[in-house]
Amino acid sequence: xxxxxxxxxxxxxxxxxxxxxxxxxxxxxxxxxxxxxxxxxxxxxxxxxxxxxxxxxxxxxxxxxxxxxxxxxxxxxxxxxxxxxxxxxxxxxxxxxxxxxxxxxxxxxxxxxxxxxxxxxxxxxxxxxxxxxxxxxxxxxxxxxxxxxxxxxxxxxxxxxxxxxxxxxxxxxxxxxxxxxxxxxxxxxxxxxxxxxxxxxxxxxxxxxxxxxxxxxxxxxxxxxxxxxxxxxxxxxxxxxxxxxxxxxxxxxxxxxxxxxxxxxxxxxxxxxxxxxxxxxxxxxxxxxxxxxxxxxxxxxxxxxxxxxxxxxxxxxxxxxxxxxxxxxxxxxxxxxxxxxxxxxxxxxxxxxxxxxxxxxxxxx
Length: 365
Fold this sequence. Notes:
The protein is α/β, with parallel strands linked by helices. It is 33% helix and 22% strand. It folds into two domains: 3-153 and 296-339, Rossmann fold (3-Layer(aba) Sandwich), CATH 3.40.50.450; 158-292, Rossmann fold (3-Layer(aba) Sandwich), CATH 3.40.50.
């Protein structure tokens, strides 16, 4: 009987997920005693009745590296430590099913788990490792907010999508003498906004790490206008907020989803500028999930493929409780505990920030 390694994808979808899955399968195919299976929608596939898993072979993963999304599906709801249950009074609660899941993995003959996910997913990985699960993490997030790796796959594809959006907004902004506000993802990190503002040539970049002064944002916009003529591009991260202000977010309404939903800060910024007397036309574009979809760039496919090969080789080496990492152009690994210890915020002393300031981009500070 072959040894089994289980692969799963958790959290938000991300360009490059399929490339990781494909790389794991192709590397495992070189070891005749190993078989790869996938759990549908992260750990939920194991926990459901009937179990939702699928065998992954070289035929199954053929050409999937050029596809966005994940053939295994993903989710931000449920999981082994917070499985949604309906109470007798009709309300919803959560149950810890981690012990049950570990027994099911043993029953399925799973000797190791490769969990592909971001900060939240890897915290689950660490908790499972502490309970005895042979698990290895692969960092995934378009937000680039994992500090234990220099880059995560999917980030550059998301930046490319956002940059192309700026390129298109420039022409319509110039045609109508308007201020165009582009709201991008990133949660509590401003990496996507920062890279997009530089690549797209924006005049203003607003990020969560640097609360902005709305009057200074207005001043930066005015500098782009000569009387009634001119235009300005503002890139704002979904987690950005004014000095003394609050993040624009709503509580999740879907059962089992505990993440707050960021979004709408672009419209708030537009209204605040209007309230201060800005007469130029303002339009807001929320790029949203367009940043998550589509074909991954070559860089992300390559990085994801390297991560997948490394993850399976870590299984062979028994390096459980660790996460694959990209450090100083090398593929290595770090402990899951260290991987989730610190959030990867934009360092305001980073040369990328200095470069943006050197080109006249305003952060509203």
